[in-house]
Write a structure and sequence with these properties.
The complex is a heterodimer of chains A (about 200) and B (about 120). Chain A has a single domain, classed as P-loop containing nucleotide triphosphate hydrolases (Rossmann fold, 3-Layer(aba) Sandwich), CATH 3.40.50.300. Chain A is built from six helices and seven strands, in the order βαβαββαβαβαβα. In chain A, strands 2-3-4-1-5-6-7 form a seven-stranded mixed beta sheet, with helices on both faces. In chain A, a hairpin with a 4-residue loop joins strand 3 and strand 4. Chain B is mainly alpha-helical and about 120 residues long. Chain B has two domains: about 70 residues, Arc Repressor Mutant, subunit A (Orthogonal Bundle), CATH 1.10.10; about 30 residues, no CATH class. Chain B contains four helices and three strands. Chain B has a three-stranded antiparallel beta sheet with strand order 2-1-3. Chains A and B meet through strand 1, strand 2, strand 3, strand 4 and helix 6 of A and helix 1, strand 2, helix 2 and helix 4 of B.
Chain lengths: ~200, ~120
C-alpha cells in the first residue's frame, strides 16, 4: 500500500551534526542542478512546492480558478569535517514571482552562490536583486559553456555591477574540482564578511 | 466532570497540562527526524505511516523526507509535527543553540563559517 520512496534513502550518519545550507541560485537552465549533482554525495533530490499566485487571492471574484505554480527545488548534501557538519546545497529559482518561497529558503542560509552565463548575463540580475534584498552574502560563479563569449573579469564585474569584495569565479558546473572551488571561494568570503573589518 | 472540547486531536494520555507540544513552526527544513519505534496510533494516516517507515532505520531531514516521499515540505512539516507530539518521532534541530543564527543577529557565527570553510578545503 502507498507508493514507495523514490529511491533508497541515504541516512545521516547521526543527527548530532550541524546541518547548514547554502543556496545555489540562478535562472532556469543555468547549471544549478548540474552543479548540485556534481557536488552532492547523495543522488540529488527535489521537492515540488506549489505556490498560489498571490495576486489571485487579492483579486477575489474576478478570478475563476486559482493560479498555482509548481516550483522544483533541487538539493544535495556534502559531509564535512569528519561528519561534524552536513552542508546542504539548495538550488533556488531566480524569479521574483517565487519570492515567498525564496524567503523561506533564504532564512538561515549561510550564503548564496549565484550562477551566471556570459551568453545571458541579464537573466541573473533578478536573482542577484533578490539575494541583496535578503541580506545574504554571495559569490558569483560564471558557468562556462563551450560557446560562452570570454569576458575579462573587469568587464564582467562592471556588467554585473559587483561590489569589489564579491568573489567572481569561473567554473564548469560539470566538474567536481571546479564546482568545489566556487564553494570554497564563497565560504572564504562568508568568513571574511562575518568578522567585520578583519 | 465538565465536558471537554468537542474533539481531542491528541490521545488523552499525552494531554500533559502545562507542557507545550512542539510547535509546527519549530520544524525547519533541516530538522532531522528519527522514528522512536512506537507503533502507529488509530488517528495516524497512511501518510504518517510512510513517514515513520522511511525514518525507522535512520535519520533524515524534513527536506530529504519531502524528496523521498514526493510531498511538499509544508505537508511533511505538518505530518511530522503530529508525530513528534505523539512521541513517534524524535526531532533534532539543525544547529546546537550555541551556534544558532539568532545568537548572532540572525547571522551564522564566524566559528561555524570557519568550520565550513576548513571542511571544504579538506575535501
Amino acid at each position: 500500500m502507498g507508493s514507495s520512496p523514490s529511491s533508497t534513502p541515504v541516512y545521516l550518519p547521526n543527527t548530532n551534526q550541524q546541518r547548514v545550507k547554502v543556496l545555489i541560485a540562478g535562472p532556469f537552465g543555468i547549471g544549478k542542478t548540474t552543479m548540485i549533482q556534481t557536488l552532492s554525495e547523495i543522488p540529488s533530490l527535489h521537492t515540488e512546492e506549489v505556490m498560489t499566485d498571490a495576486a489571485a487571492d487579492i483579486d477575489e471574484l474576478s478570478v475563476t480558478d486559482k493560479k498555482t505554480t509548481t516550483v522544483a527545488i533541487d538539493f544535495g548534501r556534502l559531509t564535512l569535517s569528519q561528519g561534524r557538519i552536513v552542508l546542504y546545497l539548495f538550488g533556488t529559482p531566480g524569479q521574483r514571482r517565487f519570492k515567498p518561497l525564496w524567503s523561506d529558503y533564504a532564512r538561515g542560509a549561510l550564503g548564496a552562490l549565484v550562477i551566471v552565463d556570459t551568453r545571458r548575463l541579464a537573466d541573473s540580475f533578478e536573482v542577484m536583486d533578490l539575494i541583496e534584498e535578503s541580506g545574504l552574502d554571495y559569490a558569483v560563479a560564471v558557468n562556462q559553456f563551450p560557446d560562452s563569449p570570454a569576458h575579462d573579469e573587469e568587464t564582467l564585474r562592471l556588467k554585473l555591477d559587483l561590489e569589489d569584495h564579491t568573489p567572481l569565479v569561473i567554473c564548469d558546473a560539470r566538474d567536481w574540482d571546479s564546482s568545489l572551488n566556487t564553494l570554497r571561494a564563497l565560504a572564504a568570503h562568508l568568513v571574511s564578511r562575518s568578522g567585520g573589518s578583519r | 466532570m465538565s465536558p471537554g472540547p468537542a474533539r481531542r486531536l491528541v490521545p488523552s494520555y499525552l494531554a500533559t497540562g502545562g507542557v507545550n507540544a512542539p510547535e509546527h513552526s519549530a520544524l525547519e527544513e533541516l530538522t532531522a527526524l528519527t522514528a522512536t519505534g512506537r507503533s502507529a496510533l488509530p488517528h495516524h494516516t497512511p501518510a504518517h505511516q510512510r513517514l515513520l517507515d522511511l525514518v525507522s532505520d535512520g535519520g533524515l531531514t524534513v527536506m530529504e523526507i519531502a524528496g523521498y516521499l514526493r510531498l511538499p515540505v509544508g505537508v511533511v512539516k505538518m505530518l511530522a509535527a503530529q508525530l513528534v507530539s505523539d512521541g513517534h518521532l524524535r526531532a533534532a534541530a539543525p544547529l546546537p543553540d550555541a551556534l544558532a543564527p539568532r545568537t548572532n543577529a540572525g547571522r551564522p557565527s564566524r566559528a561555524l563559517l570557519e568550520e565550513v570553510m576548513h571542511g571544504l578545503l579538506a575535501l
